[in-house]
Give the backbone structure.
Amino acid sequence: MNQQRTEKVTIEEKRAGAEAVLRAEHVTKEFRTERKQIVHAVSDVDLTLLRGETLALVGESGCGKSTLARLLLHLIPVTDGRIYYGDTEITHMKEREFKHIRRHMQLVFQDPYASLNPRMTVRDIIAEPLDTYRLYQNKEERTEKVLELMRRTGVPEEFLMRYPHQFSGGQRQRIGIARAIALDPEILICDEPVSALDVSVQSQILNLLKKLKEEMHLTSLFIGHDLSVIDFIADRIAVMFLGRMCEIAPREELFRDPQHPYTRFLLDAIPHADPHLRDRKKQFLLGEVPSPIHPPEGCCFHTRCPYADERCKTERPEMRECGSGHFAACYRLS
């Protein structure tokens, strides 16, 4: 059934004339605790990142979003499954071989305070990728490239020789973004890049990311949990719960007609400023929160789903197409 889903997605991509830049097939990641227990962080995930799009990966904390991003970046090994960059399989590629691909796949970190070396100046932080790949050996050219990146990301040139502790969170994140685009990457993976920032600063960083996407023709994977942010930045949305994919759809389609109960709960939790909606009845997630060490049999969401029946408790639903480019894993689609 998983193979059928992959073929359907491929047909949909070809129909839209889209090209798969990064692809995960049945990817699984398990960790072992000190007590030899197995943590099922990512389980049998299929995901395709199409050229030129921003794909948002959403879900509550601990659902496996960041782990999946690190698997795609080859930062940690997969337990099972395959990952492709274009037509090249990178699943078990050795580090020295993958180095030439990594320059095309860069990461913007969540915490702008922890992701910058406090002992390095802005110039050296932004130039670090250039030094790693031995670009711009001439110091004047290297500095000019750094200044260009600072201008592009809105960091004043007079801050060139300052240290991270002299900046606000928003300014630090701009520096982190400048570092991430230094090698002109093809793919930018943003791991909750605005969650640690004030709301007013969030909008500035999001606008910067959208501007860079257009200017540099970037393909982006944007990880987050704030659906109002996701609504602004994403072209398509993938919803995760307990390490598994629940639903994947174009942004407008997902917000207009969510198919999976978990997606509906997430959308229902978005606060609205309309006072007429104040008395509207909301459904809340009840039941036991599953553990990734002992995930439930059947559908991983059935312990919290108000619509679950006996089949949901014993059989795991596969992704099924429920619209153009819209897939969900739920028996209620039958």
In short: The first helix runs from residue 2 to 16. Residues 182 and 213 are 14 Å apart (CA to CA). The first strand starts at residue 20 and ends at 32.
